[in-house]
Amino acid sequence: MKVRRKIVLYAVLAVFALQVGYACKGGVVVDSHLTRDGAIYSNQPPDVMSCVQENLAVLDVRYYGFDGQVHQGQVVVHEALAADIRQGFDVILKTRFPVESVLPIAHSLIQLKGPYGLSPDTNNTSGYVWRPVVGAQKLSMHALGLAVDINPRQNPYIRGDLILPPKAIYEPSVPGTLTTDSPVVQAFKQLGWEWGGDWTGRCVDYMHFQKIPPGWEKWVGQYR
Fold it and tell me: For the chain, does the N or the C end have fewer beta carbons within 10 angstroms?
């Protein structure tokens, strides 16, 4: 009986370690290592389109956390943008730009924040999320895997009095904040991505990057 209890205890501890991250060889803290099916198909809203999901890729990426350690997370994006994301995170890692966490929306820790993981109060960096544009009915670029948000709490979405995440403050001097001259911003823009921090219309979205690959306007238009 005691042996069985020990086995159960070890199993519980193993699951906990997988959820909150653990140090593996080389001192890298693994925050997420979901399978492709787990990262793309699990914990999804009922109206998600399989024709979009089948084109998504799950990328392992490394970055420095705010704890000063190297972490490994996962980004889900359209497979056509996989190379760009890898290059962008190479810059994030090499410049030691701190990132809070990089977990797929399907990850259990994100799911705890709201139905299907949809919560405005998060500081998680992510790509694919099946949801509409904030305050609109059309699909977000995230729903197509063509966008990524980085450190939302340091880089909020602002439209008039609406600030997401709630009570976030954009302060360029704070570590993890994206600015016009940030190497991360410059890297993504050189790869042809649009940065929401450059927007001058109704809103500004400092966390947000998006890209429509050349010639894909019609494909994107059928969903938006």
Answer: N
CB 142 within 8 A of CB 131: yes
Strands 29-30 and 70-78: parallel
Side-chain half-sphere of 9: how many Cα atoms within 13 Å? 6
Phi, psi of 50 (to 5 degrees): -65, -30
Residue 162 in 3-state DSSP? strand
Global pTM value: 0.87
4: three-class secondary structure by DSSP: helix
Residue 32 identity (one-letter amino acid)? S
Residue 22 makes CB contacts below 8 A (sequence gap 6+) with 29, 30
